[in-house]
Structure formats: structure tokens, C-alpha cells
Design goal:
The structure is a homodimer.
Chain A (H helix, E strand, L loop, with lengths): L1 E2 L5 E3 L2 H24 L19 H18 L3 H17 L8 H6 L11 H19 L3 H20 L12 H12 L2 H13 L33 H18 L2 H17 L31 H15 L5 H14 L18 E2 L6 H4 L21 H8 L8 E4 L2 E4 L5 E7 L2 E9 L6 E7 L2 E6 L14 E6 L2 E7 L5 E5 L9 E6 L2 E6 H4 L7 E2 L5 E6 L4 E11 L6 E3 L4 E10 L11 E2 L2 E3 L1
Helix pairs in contact in A: 1-2, 1-14, 2-3, 2-5, 2-14, 5-6, 5-7, 7-8, 7-9, 8-9, 9-10, 9-11, 11-12
Chain lengths: ~600, ~600
């Protein structure tokens, strides 16, 4: 299976067109402004009198640059390009003779490659991706060349001299970046270096005494081919799995492929929230145990869901199974898009699975603020601000996820109003989608050319059966139109009985969208709302959000002064209102709930 | 209202007779043996080559001595008395010239009264209680006199010289102990010193930078009369409230009384588990917020429930309201008695409100074991082993809780098979209870003498109405028999809608007993069991536990491999078996659940 780069696909309308326009018109500049406020751009001047840069600042800016490259590849953005060009000049000026470049280390003059958890190679990885993207978008090679020089230095230190304080980086990213670099340079050394970092991981326990530098936290508990459960920091994990999948694809390494399959199933089958979010614990921002998906204390970072999508997309290139595209769909419409506010300026680093803001006050009563509950409001920038620029690069390149091809077959994985021109079997085929997905169930796919078109039947759809691996195929000769209707009526979802927090509860979805309740619509104490299993759904609309809503008849108990009392069954009928989960926390602080009591 | 000391009451049969026999025959010796194993008794030799004693070891042993005194007051225990007498000789030998005595400080030679959190006055308090009890039980004054000498030194340092590093102790206990001392010595200085420590608390912020030494953690956030919500470490809190209630009683201080009423209502109305357990958070072992009663992570130490009972008992002497006796009943049959195993040798320090043992493995995945879930098994001794000896003193003196008197009225607060000889209005009255409470609803109270007998109608009872303040009164002239039947059929209980973890759930009680499910009877994944609100209860019996059980028809979902799926309503009918909560974890490790999903 071959990937279809977003450069060949134009999103022309609908949900993601609106999001792409928002990133272009608002988010890119807003993130830049906040990064300026917080010295992230000035830091590249490496003024010794300036603020000491944090070890991961390079990566924040690099992801932003990558995002600008994607925007500019579709339509030039002179102002943003100027910022990048100026930045690249600063990098060129401050890159060390040997090729090394890292804001924190160049600023402080500390010894390179000693602390495994200090993100040097992670930062390089993101600048490689930025360099590749900027080159492909603009033809400007300077950033790419600077990073190639840095990669040469890394290879010398880690592979040739082996004189570094660790063998593989504490935060993965460079592994997948080197493969992207290889795709542009065709230099086998870049592929080999990626392989080196992947193969060496977990072979020996590095820094066994330091939690942050060894073991499961950064997937170093065993060799990558022996790993079959998703462990540790969930962003690091998914970035590693991306590289493993890439290498399996490039090299045909079956043991890597099998590890990737097991790791994907571990996540999607046992360790993923209904929103496509991952990372059950804020402690270590990590995966925990099978079916351990606590709602109130979920960490579920935006970057982790993005990492999961990047991994799932790579798996689609290795195995013809709609389960990968289903996970992508689940994440992009829920746990990723919840990471950015509707106005494009506010972000969630962690995407709450349940919010009861008052519980955060528990920390006033206890030592060291050790009780974790997610913040009940969005922020424009974070101290560790990886998620906002990740959105700046993810949304403009989201069309990557729509198609793959294999021989004369086009796989349609995602439904977005778009036009694409693909090359299959040496022929040009045009494919156009008309749809208001995910709000409307109708999809019209117009194909011009000869092709076998395999269209995914979403996992949630129970009115259309799939022929094979979750896809239905349509043979198009000359031209043709495929009209689909994956009927969308709201439905109740249950979690596996082993999911502690899902028992006795249900979630409400419509199509791929998870819906949730917010306090602003339903009052406080959302936990006390009970939904009858045979509830009647009514379509609604919220003017402030400009989004469809779901209304249904539900129950609340009457207030009482008693702490405990004989069960009275003293219910009040109410109309509960649910909004799409991705739109949470756009209307102030309050409770939020995905899983509701049923009876 | 006057208290009726347990010395006047003989428990002759039933539930607590069995517990008292167990403490006499098993527990007292078992706790002693474990304390010997852990050097707690040898420590009193203060051998400089021995193990350094912990700052709270004195109190562990003192509570055990107090328990031995209570046992011996009913029937001499030569062997145990010998241990106490030897111990007292060691204390006499090692008490400093000035009167000071504390294992840790005498052993280390550190400066006294510098660290507010180091339990010196807490330890003294427990040894005062032990000295008083041992004197009253045996007539032997030595321990009492040694402690009086120590109290003189404390008064000199804290009140006269004011040269100590703190004004009031970090862990309350001495306040209530000094009042017990005053009751024996009639020395006003002892009452005044108690008053001093109570009055000074919270007047100024001691050690504002040290969490453990100031603020809410040890009820020092404001003057005690301004406190109206129960805050901080729940054992410390209730011990303080005991002294406040005692002082209100002794001095008629209305502002103290009002604070006590508010604090009691704060606990019983908003911050108490259904088991009468308190302390919602293991972080700081503390109260948290109104209605914040998480089950999985509850701390709910045995000592805290004992403290709550001691406080409620004192409130009964101040205000004629059955709510205090109701809380006592709730705690003694549930959250306190769960603290000791059925064989009398195993203990719970924290009494779980829900157990899912697998979740403890979350800590293998995260940094610093920061996720707290209670241990799923009992221990014979703890590093901080305050709870086991607290049971050794609490159970033998539990008859304190049965009666109070006022003029010629006898209040019957608790129902235990027992005989008592009371003095009211200068007359002797005999009162005898025959009952198998809490397993049987019938209570026969035989009174010989003239008295007005006010019998509590338990809060849970819905077949008998109470005339006034929760009591029904019976006028007895010469003699009479009061026959009661507080019909006991199992019933479902709901928590206030504001209790997050109670929503959509119910507990099952019968009489005052909370029942729960254990994994050994119902399999894993207890959370997935759903109880119909109209379930039929069946009385059962467990031979291993030798206890009644409740059986009822319930539902479980069928297993599935899916992590999420459309709600199937795919239920299997099961018979759920519940055991009395106090008998948890007597049959190995496993899940335990009090609150069940309902539909």
C-alpha cells in the first residue's frame, strides 16, 4: 500500500476545511504570538543575557515551522515564511562547528548527549521534520541542510565514537524523522541511523536507577520486537511505534511488523478512551493497565492522540484492515479536535474524559497537590507547549489520512469534502468527495479514471455491511459516482465490562462523534443524571457553538439534605442536552461528562 | 446528661461479648507479641545499643496498656498486668529528672518540644489515659504519678516559661487526656492546661511554611471556636473535638459547644462514609470537601472512626439527640469493626470502601507509587501501628456507649446484651438487655427500679416512630420490661446526589449493618453487577464466616472482546451474595464493593 500525500489532496469544504482555514487565519499566528511572549523565538538569538531556554523549546518551534510549511505548500504565507527564514538564519549562525544545535545546550554550554531525558534528539527530530517539510513546500534547503549536518554529528557520536552518555534517546521522535529525511535524501545512512536507534532501544537498561531515563517510561524495558503491550509515556510510545512501522514497511522486517500489530491492538483493544485519547495516568503521562481507563483522572494528551493517528496511518500502509482507519476517525473527530478551541486560540494539553472542577479543590486540603484532576479551562500556551504547534502541523496535513493506494485500488479511509488527483498504475485518477461528514451521513464520491475504489464502512455503522476487511469495493471504469449513506442516528455505547469506570454507564455517539454533557447545559452534578436505555433522541442545535446537539429525556434525583437515606426512587424528568465532545469547554468552566448512568 | 462508665455495665452475650472475649483471649496477646517483634517493648529499656524508637512508639504501647487496664478491671489478667508493671518500672527508671519522658527523645538526646509534628504530647496524652485507666482498674498509681510529674514539666515549659518551639501539639490527644486526668486528680491545673492547648490552637499560624506543622492539617487554620467544617487529619481532628466537647461540658462554654455541633454536623452530614468511616484522602489522611467521598481511594483509618465515636459519645452528654448515637452505631458495627479480623489477629489501618486489587498495579507503571489504593489484605502490625492497640482499648470499654442518664431518666443509646447497675437520683436501678442485635431486631429491656427509660429508635428503622429527639420514653415504676422489635429487612440505601461516587448506585443494609460484595463470592469485576431496584432479598448464611448473608437476584453483562460497542443489554442473571461489611477480607485478597449499580 502506498501513501497519498496531502499535497495531492485538496480539502474543499466541510468540517476540516473550516479547521484548516482556522489554523491558517488564526491559530498559526496565535501560537506564534504566545511563543514570542514566552521567549521561544527570541531564544534562537542565543543572547547570553536572555532567558535560559528550556530543553524542549526547539521542538515547540520546530513543529510550528513544520505547520507553516504545510500551510505554505497550499498557499504561500509571506509573513509566516519570513519568520521561518529569519529563524533559520539564527540557527545557521548559532549551530556549532561540529553540527550540534540545541537552544538549551548551546546557551548553557553544557556537555552534549549526557542526560537521556533532555530531549536533544527529540528536538532534532522535530527540526528534521520541519526541514523536510519546509524544503518540500518552498524548495528552500537551508534548514534541511543544517539538520543533515547535525545528523552527521549525531551519527558520529552515537554510532562511530559511541562516546555518549546514553545509546538511545529518552523521548523518541528522531527515529521517525530520520525516515522522513531518508525519503528526501535517499541517503541510506539516514535510514540506518533510524534503525540503529530503534534496534538498540531496550537492549540494555540505561540509567537503571533513574525512573525518567530507563524502563517502561520510555519503552526501554525490553527490545522493541519483544514489546507487545503499550507501555510508558504515551507520546513517546506512539512516536516510537511510528518509526517501527515505517521500518517494517521499508525493510520488510516481519518481527517489527508483528510487534507493531500487537502494540496497536494493545492500545485500540484495551488501553484507549472512547474519544481515541490515550494515556490513563497523569503520573508519567502514561499507559497503565489493560482496561484501566479512569475518567476523572485521565491524562490523555492531545499529542498522544496525534501520535496514535500517525501510528495507525502507518499501519494502514502495512495491513489492509479498517480497524486502523476506525481508530484514526475516532481520534480526529474527538480526542484530537477537543485539543483546540472553536476559535482556534485555546488549547487543551490534556483532554478531560470527565470534569468535576470542585474536586480540584481537594488539593487545598492535602499535601503537595498530589491529587490530579485535569484543568477545567483552556490555555493559549503551556510551559510545556507541545500540543498547540502539533495542531498547527496536524490539521493542515490531515488529508494525508484520506487515501492509500495499492496497484489500481484506491482505499478511501476517511470522509472529507475534497478533491484529489492520484497516480495509480501509471494512470491519473481524479477522486472527489462531497459530504458534510461527520454531521451528515451522505457521502458522494466521484471518480474519473479507471480504478477499483475500496470505501471503508465505519465500525460504528450498523446499516451497511462491509465485504472485506471493513471495506466495500466499487469498480470504476472511465468514471462513476459512489453514493453512500452511513445512516447516522444517535446510539448508546457501552464499554467492556472490565472497564471499571464504564460499568453501569453508557456514552452517546452519533456517527463517529462522541457527545457529552456540560454543566452549562445541564446544571451541576452531572453524575446524578440517569439515562433510560430506551431514551428518545431529538436533534437540537446550539447557536453559540454553531453545532448540532442531541436532546433526550433523562432523570435526576430530587435534592435532599440527607447524606444517606433509603432509596426513594425520587426522580425528576429532565431534558438532557449533549454537545459534540470536540467542542468541550468553549463556554467557560464547568462539569463535563461522557459516561452517563443508565437504567 | 451524665455518662455511664463501662465499669457499671457488663456485656453478657451477643456480638460484642464475642468481640470482648476475642480481645481478652487473642488480640491483647497478639498485639503484644507483634509489638515485641518490632522492638516496641524492648525500646522502654532505652538501651543505647538498641533500635532507635520511632516518635510514636510510646503511644502504641500506651494504648495497649490502657486496653489491658480495661480488661483487667473486669477480670484480672496476671500475665498482662505483669508486663505493664515491668514496663512502668522501666519508665520510672528512664524518666528524666525534669519529668520528661519520650522514647525517641530520651534515646536520641534531642532537644524537647521543638518539632511540632513529633508526637511528644500525643504520646504523653496516651500515657495519661493509660495511667488513669490502670489506676482505676488496679489501684496502682505509679504510672499515673509518673505522668503527673511529666504534666508538671509540660505546664512549666508551655505555660510558665513559654520557651518551647511550638504552642500547641501537632497531633492532638493530650487535651482530652488532661481532662480524664483532671477527673481523677480534681487538680484544676490539669483542666486549665487542657484549656490552654485548646484555646491556643490556631490563634497564630505556627510554622507557616511547613505543611505538616501548621494549617488545616492539624486544625490550626483558625481558632477552634471559629471552626465549623471538619478539616485535616481526621484522627487529630476528632481527638481535638473530643476535648472541645469535654471542655464545653465542664465549663459550660457555649461557643465551644456550638463549634462542636457544627463540626459534628459537618462530618455526619457531609463528610462521612456509609460505614461511619472518615478521612476521604490518603494524602494527609484527611477530610477533604463536602460530599467528596471517593470509594476506591478512601483512607478511612480505624482510629478516625474510633475518634468519631469518642466525639459523638461526648456530644450525647451535651445534647439530647439520637443523631449522635446513630453515628456511633453506624461506626461500631461497620467502619470500626472492619478494622479487626474475625480471628482477632489481623488488622486494617485503612478500611477500604471499595477494593479492586489490580489497580494497585497501576503503581508499577507510574512514578513514585503516587496512586493510592488501599491494601487488599490485613496485617498483624504496621509501621505506624496505632489502630491495633486502639481496638484493644476500644472494644473492652465499648459499654461506655450504651447508656447516659439525666435526673431519673436513663437513655438507652445502644443495644447490646448486657446488665447494668446505675445510680440515678440517688437510687439504684438495674437494667438488663436481652438481644441478638445487630443480627436480630428484637430487644428486651428489663428494668428494676423507678426510672424514665428513653430508648433510641435507630435512624434506619422505618417501622417505629420516635416521640422526641429520636427516643421513645417508657415510665418504669418498680420494675418493667420493654419489648422492642425494630424490624430488620434488607433495604437499599442511596447517597446524596452530590456524592459523586454514589450516583447511579445503592448500598444494601440490614438494620445497622452495611453489607458488601466480595470477589470470593461473586467473581471479579464486581462493578459490572447491576441490582434491580425491586430486587428480592433472601437471607443466607456463610459457614466460613459464621455470619448471616444476603442473597439477591442481580445482573452481569456477558463478556466481550470489544473495548466499546453499541449497548446490547446483554445481561446474565446471577445471584449476588453479600456479607456484613465488618467481615471483609477474612477470606483472602480480592475485590470488595459496597456501592452497586442499580437499574
Amino acid at each position: 500500500m502506498e501513501r497519498v500525500d496531502f499535497s495531492r489532496v485538496e480539502i474543499t469544504g466541510g468540517f476540516f476545511k473550516q479547521k484548516q482555514d482556522m489554523v491558517r487565519n488564526v491559530t498559526a499566528k496565535a501560537v506564534y504570538d504566545r511563543f514570542c511572549d514566552t521567549n521561544r523565538f527570541d531564544a534562537f538569538k542565543l543572547d547570553k543575557n536572555g532567558v535560559e531556554p528550556h530543553v524542549f523549546w526547539d521542538s515547540d518551534v520546530a513543529k510550528w515551522v513544520e505547520g507553516v510549511a504545510y500551510l505554505t505548500s497550499k498557499k504561500r504565507e509571506a509573513e509566516l515564511e519570513k519568520i521561518v527564514d529569519d529563524l533559520v538564519l539564527e540557527i545557521e549562525k548559532n549551530q556549532l562547528e561540529c553540527g550540534y544545535f540545541n537552544l538549551h545546550y548551546v546557551f548553557t554550554g553544557k556537555e552534549h548527549f549526557v542526560n537521556r531525558d533532555h530531549h536533544e534528539l527529540y528536538c532534532l527530530g522535530h527540526f528534521i521534520e520541519a526541514g523536510v517539510a519546509y524544503y518540500l513546500a518552498t524548495g528552500k534547503r537551508k534548514l534541511l541542510d543544517l539538520m543533515i549536518k547535525y545528523v552527521d554529528y549525531v551519527e558520529k557520536r552515537f554510532v562511530t565514537l559511541k562516546d555518549t552518555g546514553f545509546t538511545t534517546p529518552g523521548h523518541e521522535e528522531i527515529e521517525l524523522a530520520l525516515i522522513r529525511l531518508y525519503e528526501v535524501t535517499k541517503d541510506e545512512r539516514h535510514l540506518k541511523l533510524s534503525q540503529f536507534f530503534v534496534d538498540e532501544r531496550g537492549k540494555k537498561r540505561e540509567d537503571p536507577k533513574d525512573y525518567w531515563c530507563g524502563g517502561e517510561y520510555n519503552q526501554s524495558h525490553k527490545g522493541v520486537r519483544e514489546q507487545d503491550t503499550a507501555e510508558g509515556h504515551s507520546v513517546r510510545a506512539t512516536y516510537l511505534y511510528c518509526a517501527m512501522a515505517d521500518l517494517a514497511k521499508k525493510t520488510g522486517d516481519v518481527s517489527l511488523l508483528n510487534a507493531c500489530k500487537a502494540l496497536f491492538d494493545s492500545i485500540a483493544g484495551k488501553r484507549m478512551y472512547i474519544t481515541g485519547s490515550i494515556g490513563s495516568s497523569n503520573q508519567s503521562e502514561s499507559f497503565t493497565l489493560d482496561y484501566d481507563l479512569p475518567n476523572l483522572t485521565a491524562y490523555t494528551e492531545t499529542c498522544a492522540s496525534i501520535g496514535l493517528v500517525l501510528f495507525a496511518h502507518r499501519m494502514l500502509l502495512l495491513e489492509n484492515d479498517s480497524k486502523y482507519a476506525d481508530v484514526i476517525e475516532r481520534a480526529i473527530y474527538n480526542g484530537i479536535m477537543s485539543g483546540i478551541s472553536l476559535d482556534g486560540k485555546g488549547f487543551y494539553y490534556t483532554n478531560p474524559q470527565e470534569l468535576i472542577p470542585v474536586l480540584r479543590e481537594r488539593n487545598h486540603c492535602v499535601y503537595e497537590n498530589r491529587e490530579y484532576f485535569p484543568e477545567p479551562q483552556r490555555r493559549e500556551v503551556f510551559e510545556c507547549s507541545c500540543c498547540p504547534p502539533n495542531m498547527v502541523r496536524f490539521i493542515p496535513s490531515i488529508a494525508n489520512l484520506i487515501y492509500t493506494t495499492e496497484g489500481n485500488t484506491i482505499y478511501v479511509h476517511q470522509f472529507m469534502e475534497s478533491k484529489a488527483k492520484l497516480e495509480i498504475d501509471g494512470q491519473s485518477v481524479e477522486i472527489e468527495q462531497k459530504t458534510n461528514y461527520p454531521f451528515d451521513s451522505k457521502i458522494e464520491i466521484t471518480v474519473k479514471g479507471n480504478a477499483n475504489v475500496c470505501v471503508r464502512v465505519p465500525e460504528w455503522c450498523d446499516t451497511v455491511k462491509a465485504e472485506e476487511n471493513g471495506y466495500n469495493s466499487y469498480k470504476i471504469e472511465g468514471s462513476g459516482v459512489i453514493c453512500l449513506d452511513y445512516e447516522m442516528t444517535p446510539y448508546l455505547v457501552e464499554a467492556n465490562p472490565k472497564v471499571t469506570d464504564g460499568c453501569g454507564k453508557c456514552a452517546i455517539m452519533k456517527g463517529p462523534l462522541v457527545y457529552c454533557m456540560e454543566e452549562i447545559d445541564n446544571g451541576k452534578y452531572l453524575r446524578d443524571i440517569t439515562i433510560p436505555v430506551n431514551c428518545q433522541f431529538k436533534q437540537g442545535y446550539d447557536c453559540d457553538l454553531d453545532l448540532p446537539t442531541i436532546e433526550l429525556g433523562a432523570y435526576r434525583r430530587k435534592p435532599t439534605d440527607k447524606l444517606y437515606q433509603r432509596l426513594r426512587g425520587n426522580y425528576t424528568e429532565i431534558t438532557a442536552k449533549l454537545i459534540p465532545y470536540f467542542a468541550i469547554l468553549n463556554r467557560g468552566v464547568g462539569e463535563m461528562q461522557i459516561w452517563h448512568n443508565i437504567k
